[in-house]
# Entry
Amino acid sequence: MQRRGKNPTTKNDTQDYDAGWPLIWQGILDLALVLWIVRVPVTSTALGLLVLGAAPQAQDLFVEFARSPGAAWSWLFFILRIVWFLAVLMLFWSMPTHYAARLLLDTDVRFQSDLTHRRSGQVCLLAFAVWVPRVLGLLTFVAVLLAIWRSGSNLPILDEKDVIKDIRWSLVEMAVLVALTAAGFLWYVIKRPRNADVPLIRNLKPLSRRLAPIWQTVSPPTADQPLDDDESRGVGRIILVGLFVFFVGALLVGPELAGKIFPRAMAVPFVLGGWLPFLSFLGSLGRRFRAPLIAGAAAAIALVTLLLGDNHSIRRIPESDPSGPMPVETAVKLWMHENGCDGTPTACPRPLIVTASGGASRAAFFMSSIVGYLMQESSRAGLDQNQTRNRLFAISGISGGRWGR
# Structure
């Protein structure tokens, strides 16, 4: 016999359930709105996470920071390179990501109006507006830590155990420095003064006042926005514009010089952060005028490239050219002659054929190392290095794997 009792779902429970889910759904919508407004910093951060955390070409990116063991100068060189990398990471990616996201939210008229006049859920929306830019800036450090971890987990297996150990310790030291810098970044964005009176900002304020009509035309301030806040944002805009101008200038000077100043690992934050101010500006205008300006700019660039060409056409070599492609029959005959088996194919040794994928300089270094390792270890099979070299029939590679091209 079933006992009678109270239904576990009481009226109060039902009311709490009905009142809770709308608030949760409203919170999801608020987060989606904030992420849409700051979609450019979100995309830049996501690309950084994908490149540094998943791209095969970045799986040993930070091994180049390894220091030489036992040398006093290596410590100084190691520290200088790390400091330069952290400066690039902070100035070109972390801080611009945080500030561009903050600026987009602070100057969005519709968002600020919703934040001011909403009666329910305002605390949640305000928390998203404050913490989403901070989290985006912090995720740039997470991307770098992922790349450092991948560099340590993809080290090759070498007989020189001490070399691998020294590289691992260098990566650990770098990870610690990056984590400490991330902690300092988080402390700064939380505790920073709203109107910092540092020499750089103080010297830029007169310029910001002169450019105020331009800022107000491009991004009109909200009605309840204090004048000091608008002036402070003007200084921030000048800094972002300056970073973008420096980025474009570095590219115009020449890729070789830019590659020397910002090599490999530094190129990721430099490029992702360099485009951030301009694309954020387009995103802000697009939301203001409700027009897909970023997509339109990408379509315009694609159309211009289609009409004018991309200057990346494939160069073909005529067969009559002496430097053109060698027929397979000629290559086989030359290989047989080098191995002393002309006319007697059954007496020929087994050929060595190497294939290599792309991956810029990483693929080239890896491929040359493998070929050198084969020649070095050929003595175990009773061969000298010249015999191993003569057995090498063909190398098939693309991009960085096209060794010797």
Residues 72-106 form the longest helix (35 residues). Residues 1-9 have pLDDT under 50 and may be disordered. The two ends are 88 Å apart (CA to CA).
